[in-house]
Design brief:
InterPro entries: TPR-like_helical_dom_sf, TPR_rpt. The protein contains 13 helices and no strands. By secondary structure, it is mostly helical. Helix 9 packs antiparallel against helix 10 and helix 11 runs antiparallel to helix 12.
Length: 276
């Protein structure tokens, strides 16, 4: 029995164990057919009896038993011991980070976001070259509503030279959350350069157009009420959110409110999604 999605990557038949005699070999065969509790007892008796079994193989097999039981904490503990005994064995490292990923994902689905963040961070430290762990850290930070930390995390990812449009879209959303509209447009532009048909880019652009429309309507209400300074702020917000809006009402209203001509921002032509 293999853990769902991992069987092809981590076969449970380990050729180096075939020569081991007695109950350890029996325990491994039992493990293969997923009788995990029986396997754990057999392996434990073999170890306690003082038989000359390799520590590394013992920890690796016991970790597999715990994986079958979905006890990822115990599996990770045993894999850490196996990896510390053979740090040159990258298979143990790969297996350990996979188990940490599964553990973190289980915690995330249980809404234990802080614990999940700690686990994903451990996996990322072990294999910093793998972006999947960093992406899960971002998801945890968002779930914890630690938006500023998430923004810092995403910015580091961008500085590392990511070519993933999703990362730019995420940072654009965070910039929009913090009302940093110019930076939001910049990241949308970067995302569209990487993926001109990115669906989430279209969604975010619509959000910004809606924000512009709402701000323009509020500006009209404030202008009628004589609250000209606040109305001007709303108009500026509308222009920032949707600089491509050709409506003549925007510059006209700004002239009326401020008494001075308004120079509109240069249109961000690169944000155009083109014709479907």
């Amino acid at each position: 029995m293999a853990w769902v999605g991992t069987g092809s990557c981590w076969p449970h038949t380990h050729p180096s164990l075939s020569h081991l005699p007695g109950s350890f070999s029996q325990g491994h065969q039992v493990l293969v057919v997923a009788e995990c509790q029986a396997s754990g007892r057999i392996v434990g008796r073999e170890w306690q009896s003082g038989s000359p079994l390799p520590q590394v193989e013992f920890y690796a097999s016991r970790a597999e038993a715990y994986i079958q039981l979905c006890d990822f904490s115990s599996a990770a503990q045993n894999l850490r011991k196996a990896y510390s005994s053979q740090p040159e064995n990258t298979d143990f490292l790969e297996r350990l980070t996979l188990v940490l990923y599964l553990k973190g994902q289980c915690l995330f689905e249980q809404c234990a976001f802080l614990d999940a963040l700690n686990v994903f961070s451990q996996a990322s430290e072990l294999q910093p070259e793998k972006f999947c762990f960093r992406y899960r850290c971002m998801a945890c930070l968002l779930a914890l509503k630690r938006h500023r930390e998430c923004l810092s995390f995403v910015t580091k990812e961008v500085e590392h030279g990511t070519t993933n449009a999703d990362v730019y879209i995420l940072r654009a959303r965070l910039y929009n959350f913090f009302q940093q509209v110019d930076l939001c447009h910049r990241d949308l532009h970067s995302a569209l350069l990487l993926d001109p048909k990115h669906p989430q880019a279209k969604v975010l652009l619509k959000v910004m157009v809606d924000q512009a429309q709402e701000a323009r309507q509020e500006a009209g209400i404030l202008a009628v009420q004589g609250k000209l300074q606040r109305a001007l702020q709303c108009i500026n917000c509308a222009i920032e959110n949707n600089p491509l809006d050709p409506s003549p009402a925007l510059p006209q209203m700004c002239c009326v409110i401020s008494g001075e001509p308004l120079t509109l921002p240069r249109p961000h032509r690169s944000l155009s999604l083109g014709h479907p």
